[in-house]
Amino acid sequence: MVEPTSPADPRVYFAAERTLLAWIRTGLAMMGFGFVVAKFGIFLREISRVQGVSPPRPFGLSHWFGTLLIVVGVTVTLCAAANHFRTLRLLERNESLRFGRWSLGIVVALLLALFGTLASTYFLAGMDDMG
User: Fold this and answer.
1) What's the pLDDT tens digit per position in 88-116?
2) CA 76, 122, 61: angle at the middle one, nearest 5?
3) How far is C-alpha 70 from the chain's CA centre?
4) Element containing residue 35 per DSSP (H, E)
5) Which of 18, 43, 83, 122 is the most buried (most CB within 10 A)?
6) Do 44 and 55 contact (CB within 8 A), yes or no?
7) With b meaning 16 or more CB within 10 Å and e meaning fewer, what string describes 76-92?
């Protein structure tokens, strides 16, 4: 005989929704910051042109860093949506949630730490050019 399942606690679904919204905010922030970084090189180039000096080095790397952050932000948002969909399916079937060793949060934290390290190395290497 199959026991009837009790209705799920709505607080669990609300918590899942809040988690999804937090990941969406994270993805949007990464995309917005990536846009700023990508366009910052153009801004510096225009400032140099207005001042009549040549830029100390090309600013193409900011374009690639920014674009990469935008792509990571889109990927984070898509992964969050997929994870939310999977979580809702498990909750609907009254199955327990399983958490792996690598979560989306850990992956994003490691990627941002890597980007920060690369960007700071790039900026510190250019300090000699700034005089």
Assistant:
1) 999 888 888 888 888 899 999 999 999 88
2) 65
3) 8
4) helix 10-51
5) 83
6) yes
7) bbeebeebbeebeeebe
**Cα gap 22→44, rounded to integer Å:** 33
Give me the residue label for tokens 């140099």. Answer: 48
**pLDDT tens by residue, 1-29:** 444 455 568 888 999 999 999 999 999 99
Smallest CA-to-CA distance from 115 within 66, 76, 60 is with 66
Residue type, 71: V
Token pair belonging to 96:
């327990």
Burial, 9: exposed, middle or buried (Cβ in 10 Å; 0-12, 13-18, 19+)? exposed
What's the rounded Cα separation, in Å, for the pair 114 and 122?
12
Which DSSP state fits 126?
T
Q: What's the residue count for the chain? A: 131
Closest to 71 in 3D by CA, of 21, 102, 100, 108: 108
